[in-house]
User: What shape does this take?
Amino acid sequence: MRKQLIFAFIMVILGGFVYSQITEEELKVQKERLQQQNTALKKEIAELNKDLQRNQAESKTSLLYIKNLDDKISKQNSLVRGLNREKRYIEDEIYLKQLEINKLNRELIELRKEYKDILVKAYKNKSVENKLLFVLSSKNLKEAFHRIKYLQRYSEYQLGKADEIVAKTEKIKQEKEAQERSKQEKEALLAQQSVIKDDLENEKKAKQRAVDEYKKNAGELTQQITAKQQEQKTIDSEINRIIEEEIRLARIRAENDRKAWDAAAKTNTIASFQAYLNEWPSGDYAESARKNISQLEADNRGWQFARSTHTKAAYETYLRSFPEGQFASTAKLEITKFEEAEELARLERERAERERLEAEAANKPVENIVIKEVEKPKPIENPVPDTPKAPKYAERSGATELSADFVSNRGNLPWPVDRGQIVGKFGIGQHPVLKIEVNNDGVDIATNRGTNAKAVFDGEVTQVISIPGGNGTVLLRQGTYFTVYSNLSYVSVKKGDRVKRGQEIGRIYTDSNGDTILNFQVRNGSAKQNPETWLSRN
Assistant: This one.
């Protein structure tokens, strides 16, 4: 019973060892993944430090400075949590190493005991110890051979046990070294964690100082924000008026375009379609007009060929190529004339044949009857005129990463600034510091002093708005959509200009607090869109 209990205990230990091996491997993978995440966080914190240094040089009361402090504190908190998890993984790793060392020590003790027993038995058995005497004392050759084989196996067994002891000892040494490295890694991690926690506390204090400094002028800032809100309302009203006017004019243009097309299509001549293109070179029906002109020109060439040849076959070829052509009725009439002439000739031949037969029957001399053969039409070589090739248009270059259609690029549009952060969300919300209600028809993007706003897509400058005491606003039209760029101290484009994606359209204003903030809007007609859903996340 006792032996069974010992055996069961040993199996439990071995089973625990197998489980610990699996767990250790999993811990290793999870620890490596966590270390990668922590490394990425450290890089992001380093980038934020650069931004903070740049913003701090401009103003410590900047909204962007406070926003970056918030971001850094958030990432530092995430890093502390990640380092804590990493420390727990290392502690688990150390624990599992200690279990492995304990197990190996138990196995080593057992091996040494077994080896000791072997040596004791060998000592007691003098015949085995004196190997030569042991072999020579055999009764016969067969017994001597068996004793030699026994001595060989016995010797190999002794050596095997000795090698196993050496291997176990080396394994214990390696595991202790690995455990020591893990302990050192833990100590380094704790030191790093302590530094980060101290830095975190300093950043929290710095943020609080920045917020307190910002709030010192809360009354004045609130007035500025209120005035800015009122200014934005005025601008928005003007934007709405301009867009509604654009929509009205677009409808008129579309209606006039359609009427001009209907008139051209009704006349259905090259001249009428060319007159449409002269008036509406980029109209909704311009491509159809060019196609119709090409078809009519081919129709004319086909008819001229048929007319100059003037055979039934030529007119039939024209009808096959242009069954609805402008000369189709004339071609049918000409074919009818040829068919009537052929019928008359056939009747004349039949009448002459009858007269000849009647004369022969009456034995009367037959007067010379001249039967004029109707000349058969010669086959026409290549009666179908070559169909003119469609005109080649110049290949239009453009950014391969964006579609030519504005609406297809939702979520992929470039930002209107090279560097920046959104500090004011779309819609009704709270000011990030003063906690007063603000209404934003776009998003506020904070950037560095001296930054220029850039067009996010090709478009036409619909209007440049400037109100008394305020800054400039530029409207770009992209089909039925509009992009709006507000708070510009200087505008480098004018109404009617065609701008390309990435083209600079104006300098962003920097206020007395050091904030350089662009208000960016996207509209579908007069309907306001959330710009964040349009801009790339990169």
